[in-house]
Specification:
homodimer; Molybdenum Cofactor Biosythetic Enzyme, Chain A; Molybdopterin biosynthesis moeA protein, domain 3
Chain lengths: 421, 421
Amino acid sequence: MARYIEKLTPVSEALRLLKERVSPIEEWFDAPVWEANGMVLARDVHAPIDWPPRDRSAYDGYAVRSVDTPGRLKLVGSATIGSIPAIRLGPGEAAYVTTGGFLPEGADAVVPEENASVEGGHVIIDQRVEPGSYVDKRGSLVSKGQLVAKRGTVLTVLDIAGLVESAITEVPVYRRVKIAIVSTGNELIYPGEPAWTAREILSGKVVATTGAVLAQYLQDYVPWAELVHEALLPDDLEAVSWTVERLLPHADIILVTGGTGPSTIDLFYRLRDKLGGELVFRGLKVVGGKPTSAYIVDGKPVIGLSGYPISALHGFIRLVYPLLIHMGNVRRPAPPLPIVWAVLASRVEPKRPRPIKVRLRVENGRIVAEPLPWKYQKSSAGIGLVMADGLALTGEEPLEPGSLVPVLLYRAPAGWRPPIP
Amino acid sequence: MARYIEKLTPVSEALRLLKERVSPIEEWFDAPVWEANGMVLARDVHAPIDWPPRDRSAYDGYAVRSVDTPGRLKLVGSATIGSIPAIRLGPGEAAYVTTGGFLPEGADAVVPEENASVEGGHVIIDQRVEPGSYVDKRGSLVSKGQLVAKRGTVLTVLDIAGLVESAITEVPVYRRVKIAIVSTGNELIYPGEPAWTAREILSGKVVATTGAVLAQYLQDYVPWAELVHEALLPDDLEAVSWTVERLLPHADIILVTGGTGPSTIDLFYRLRDKLGGELVFRGLKVVGGKPTSAYIVDGKPVIGLSGYPISALHGFIRLVYPLLIHMGNVRRPAPPLPIVWAVLASRVEPKRPRPIKVRLRVENGRIVAEPLPWKYQKSSAGIGLVMADGLALTGEEPLEPGSLVPVLLYRAPAGWRPPIP
């Protein structure tokens, strides 16, 4: 009796135990910047050259020698973006330039097109122009050797655009963290033709969706990791241990979902006896956290998560995500998890940390979180996920109406529009 | 002179003009739920059956007839999740059940495993059990015909998990909005071997990254759209119009990037003369918005955006994203755009709506946005994107230190951890 009710481990303790035992990825290599989207910088990046590498025009107009202004200057050619100008300005000469183009030698200022007029082959400039006017000077943005990005930064597509624009075309990055997901459950099926699938569900089968939820959150919020394998297996110790053994050489971390009830939780525990390794913790002190457990085999974490999508996601957000930050050497994660503060609309008594399905609305510019009725809060009440917009993430203490609660958003609150002025 | 300085159109006006002229997608079809990730519901979805479809056990334990409790009951079998139990309980009989499994006929309550003991082939239950105890009754979560999801909802992976769990295996969805991106610029190159690419950049070439930025934001935040074509072209009116003509039959909207200076902005305007159609607006009243323009050909918007990544993204967030919400029939977008309120650390005078590159940090639980120095604010200062963490989106009015400003986050603020208790 009560064989599974042991001391549950608080999340912070479970995470500390895991981090102590799991090493961050050490392998790194130089990658073309445009292939490093979502990867983690393994070293600080310093500028290899001054940027811009030459004086550039900051406007469409006429490159001039400022000493020649005001004046009537001879138009000797043009210097557009895309190449180093072949022309050189002598006294009394000007050249057409476009924004971002390198200045011809001799030029030290640009006169915007709208401040000049053209007559025949000449440009008439009425006013005196200061040296450096409308010019981006060599090295004005970045000096050679300057630190431009720090180790531990997850590169976004905007970072890539900025680095490559500045002629930084190769960066040192860690290899991605490799993840395998094993979904277990005798009742699980692959979905197929809709009517057939509905009949199977009515006869008690369950479509395997928990692995898909985890895979989506990995794809969206953990770009420094890659899902290398996904497996679907029965609640069979031999089959699961056989599969995990075969995945261990190829993954840095294995997530095993399933075990929603005490009888199946045992399967994960017995798996440890088969595989060996060190039990790290058994049961996480969160609602729905009894199946959440971990051991280490060959230095790699094998983490058991609930078979219910919401409970597995909860374990993922609280435990696996911070562990992946650690394993990936991440100091500045990107994209940020979509967690916002919301105002709680009614009292909740979570007792243990738990995900509460909430509907969201906007009132007076603030996001208000209304918990769904109690019956939809069960892990097994999946339809509650459809009715809700996000998951409020609580601690142990009761929360009064009006308190602020963090909410993992999975869609925009009703009535929400981005607050862009 | 000043041929391009016309009356710029405010964002709200530009958006109104576009919405009036562009029809939302009408085509819809029934899709298997698991293939509808990111798609938009075309009709309200009602439950096809009661859920659960039969009484289910809410716990691992023993299914009993409550009238038999307390008592010593004969264990006649087990009913685990995954099938409809073949057994039927008679008087004085019990069956082992697991969480989520259907109750055998005759049973009306479940006794948790830890509240019972087993002796030989019998289960001993000491206390009286109420009918319905630890049972999820048929229809207790959803009644047949009940509205479970509304038209205009973008389906997330959690919605899919919830729907399919409830035997809703097919949903009516709009087809995705088809987008083509055409990047133009004589200076543009494809990136290749890093050293070669760096040399090309130093000679004035520019790696085409703006299209990649737009593609990433489409992928991350507009799952109801699909990128059907990407093209890279010189600033050549014939080449661009030839390509746009060929894309028009296959896309619902075409984004043309390029034209960062007045001379190349003209290319987009002349494109309209080639293709015909109605000019909607010419120049958006935001900083960097002069190249942002739109016309309608064959009922389809062709939208010109800046060639600079940050300005193109700004036009995308302000104009294209809301237009795609309209075109996609979206009422509840998912995932939400990562826009948060931050406290501005220093004064800004934007004059027109603009994206301000900001570094973010957390102070006393609030996100503080520190604008990068002025020289990094130029659209052409791409390295500023690497130094920043997000883009503050301003209106026209000056903003004092301490004011709240919306920030499009592209990475987590320094010192940030999700506020999970």
